[in-house]
Amino acid sequence: MSEQLTRLESSVYQYLLDFTAEHTYQPSIRDIGKQFEIKSTKTVSDLLQSLARKGFIERDPSRSRGVRLLGFSGTAQSTPVPYYGRIHAGEPALLPEHREGFITMDRRFLPSERVFFLKVKGDSMTGRAIENGDFVMIDPAATAKDGDMIAARLGEDATIKTLSHEGATVVLKPANPADRDIMVGAQDDFSVLGIVCGVFRPFNVLETSSKHVASSGMVS
Asked: Is 173 a catalytic residue?
């Protein structure tokens, strides 16, 4: 998984999003310190640096308001959710350099702050309404159980399948009779990335310089 935010980092990040949406400019370091009762400007600066290191913002430390919110759309109570084009073998599976863009979502549709999107390639899950080109939302905070539709990592490849077990063997089941089950043994380089918790199906995707896709809804 990508590196998780601490509770304070998450609160500061959401404050940055909402403040910028309301005022059209970012809060200063002193604004952030006042909001969270942090007296040390260095502590605030360290929080922003951590957000930058984890891939949520870019910053210019020479400027008080030198923060760029990656994927930000300017809408209050929304969060840019990253989507990835590649998966890294090993942990963390999601690296900032493999992120291809963002889909801005209303926070009401996000089961956890750690969600991300993968773009589907192929038709192995058409029986569960997942089509080629769909963006599937993945929740890594949820615990997967048999019958759940999951994103799994097999080496450097990601796949969307239904989770099942046959004894000690993990079975990844497609929802297309033309495809075969994937049997995962103890020696295979395998991990569960998370549970599929939503699907976004764009009919038109406009490529922008910021690699940002704005969504008006989600079908789960």
From this structure: no
Report how far residue 183's alpha carbon sits from residue 165's, in angstroms, rounded to the nearest whole number. 9
Hey, how many other C-beta atoms are within 10 angstroms of the C-beta on 139? 20
- pLDDT tens digits for range 96-127: 888 888 888 888 889 988 899 998 989 999 99
> Which residue numbers in the chain have pLDDT < 70?
1-2, 61-64, 73-76, 204-220
* Domains located in the chain, CATH noted: 7-69 (1.10.10.10), 78-214 (2.10.109.10)
Catalytic residue from among 2, 124, 173, 215 = 124
| pLDDT of the residue at 212 | 46
The answer to whether residues 197 and 113 touch, using CB atoms and an 8 Å cutoff, is no
Q: Which of 78, 161, 173, 215 is catalytic?
A: 161
- Residue 112 catalytic? no
- Provide the pLDDT for residue 128: 92
- Structure pTM? 0.64
